[in-house]
Amino acid sequence: MKNYNAEIEAAVEKYRTLLEGQLARVERINAAGDAVDYTKMDKIIIGVCGGDGIGPTITAETARVLEHLLADEVKAGRIEFRTVEGLTIENRIAHMKAIPDDVLAELKACDVILKGPTTTPKQGDGMPNIESANVAMRKELDLFANVRPVRVPAQGIDWTFFRENTEGSYAVGSQGQNVTDDLAIDFCVTTTEGTRRIAKLAYEFAKANGKERVSIVTKANVIKTTDGKFLNLCLDVAKDYPEIATDEWFIDIMTAKLVDEKRRRDFKVFVLPNLYGDIITDEAAEFQGGVGTAGSANIGKRYAMFEAIHGSAPRMVAEGRAIYADPCSMLRAGVMLLNHIGYNKEASRLEKALDFCMFEEKKLTVTGRNTGATCREFADYVSETLAKM
Ligand code: IPM
Ligand code: MG
Q1: Are 217 and 256 in contact (CB under 8 A)?
Q2: What is the C-alpha separation between 128 and 125, in angstroms, rounded?
Q3: DSSP letters of 210-240?
Q4: What atom in ligand 1 is closest to the CA of residue 120?
Q5: pLDDT tens for residues 30-51?
Q6: Whose CA is closest to atom 1 on ligand 1?
Q7: Short-list 79, 151, 90, 149, CA closest to 114
């Protein structure tokens, strides 16, 4: 065999840096205090951050609906909507940072954030290798839980996914190594507290919402160390919730079971590592009408960010279709935002109005093309429905 000492030494040195970073993160999450209590805050600042592609369109329409719903709170000074500029792909490339420092400081001055999708550079698209703004924000604000509900009432589907949001294959996703021209290695990370906190949140949610089952999804038969640890820790947390049934699944068969009409309505709450959660929630959203209809909450102890589960759809913009973008994903995220900050009454009004517009009356539908309503028309339809409720 050729002598690879130099390549191995270089890789080991980079690996050391990566381990130091992850061990520092472990210390930070172990030291994190309790979650903030929004009811004790004098004022809650909602940051509104448009993002790229169709992001500004669907975010602006959602902010408009939320501002209308919370008008009295805004007037009384209990809520402030604050626009955060600069989370665009152009500005991120100009600063060569996933989130430019001044934008991050502005985000950190908010309590919760409504964020439009952002464009993520990928191999071969000619853009520099900048980490996804999404992934960076989840890490910077330690938004460890990605909560993604999917409901299709007519089919008995009522699922809530608890996707671990800062670890797994994403923790050091942009720090993989090309050890030689012929060998590339990526890394997958599981930590004890990182897993326990997402598992606890999933079980607490199940308990508070009368869900009788939690399904743990991994690939622990193959990814034995990190997925094995994730599975064992979830099973350990499950012991504190004897009234809730727990089952274990591998991700491959779970993706199949979600299309099994006889079985899928039995599932309620899922807890799973980052990458599997990413993949399966797009599949799940498809049953509800596509990713354009699904919102996503990114929850941490200090901050929370609410977004669509989909990307910025640059093709829609290139084809001049941005005005036809579906705002439902962001409006669903708005429901989660309202619930998270304790405005449950407003959340349930918005949720009912959305259900009515999307599943019952269906006076307008958004198709993403000029065959359907525009984003603004649909948001107006939701606002009119709200006014009648
Ligand atoms: C999501 C998205 C992101 C992810 C991308 C844009 C980095 O697919 O929120 O599901 O992979 O988490
Ligand atoms: Mg995704």
Answers
A1: no
A2: 9
A3: T--EEEEEE-TTTSTTHHHHHHHHHHHHHTT
A4: 6
A5: 999 899 999 999 999 999 999 9
A6: 309
A7: 79
Which residue among 122, 135, 278 has the greatest number of ligand 1 atoms within 8 angstroms of its CB, and so is best to mutate?
278
Pocket of ligand 1, beta carbon within 6 A: 120, 132, 134-135, 278, 309, 311
Distance 272 CA to ligand 1 centre (A): 15
pLDDT at site 115: 97
Q: Whose CA is nearest to atom 10 of ligand 1?
A: 278
| CA-proximal residue: ligand 1, atom 3 (nearest) | 134
Please report which helix (H) or strand (E) contains residue 79, including its range.
strand 79-83
pLDDT value at position 122?
82
Q: What is the pLDDT of residue 123?
A: 78
Q: In the numeric block, which tokens belong to residue 104?
A: 């991050």
- Ligand 1 mean position to 121 CA, how many Å? 12
Give CA–CA dist 92/51, Å, rounded. Answer: 11
258/287 Cα distance (integer angstroms): 9
Determine the average pLDDT of the residues in 309-322.
94
For β-strands 177-180 and 183-185, DSSP reports them as antiparallel
- CA–CA distance from 282 to each of 165, 234, 277, 286 (Å)? 15, 23, 9, 6
Map out the domains of the chain with their CATH numbers.
1-31+152-284 (3.40.718.10), 35-143+300-389 (3.40.718.10)
pTM above 0.85? yes
Looking at residue 361, its pLDDT comes to: 94
For 298-332, letters b (16+ CB in 10 Å) and e give bbbbebbbbbbbbbbbbebbeeebbebbbbbbbbb
d(CA 135, CA 282): 17
Ligand 1 pocket: which of 115, 118, 132, 164 to mutate (most atoms within 8 A of CB): 132
